[in-house]
Design goal:
alpha+beta, 4-stranded antiparallel β-sheet, flat
Length: 89
Amino acid sequence: MVKSGLGQGPFSVQIERFDTSADALSAVTLQGHPLEGWRYWRVYSIGTNDLVVETGAADLPGPAPLDYLGYKIVRYQQIKIWQEYLRTS
C-alpha cells in the first residue's frame, strides 16, 4: 500500500515481473489508484558509465467519475514533469 498526497488516497500496486537477468520490473495498479494501468522500467548500459533507464506505461482512467476528469487533466502535466526532470538531472 502506497500513501500519496495531493488529494490522492492510499493505493496498491502489484509487481508482475521482476527479471534480474534483463534488469526489468513491471507493475500494475490495484485498488484505490486513479488509473488502471501497467508500467515497466528497464535499465541497460550503452557504454562505460552510460546507463539508459527505459520506462513505459499503458494507462486508462480508473472507475470513478473524477478519475476520468483527472486522467484528462493530469496526463499533459505528467509529461511536462518528466521532461523537466530529465532536463535537470
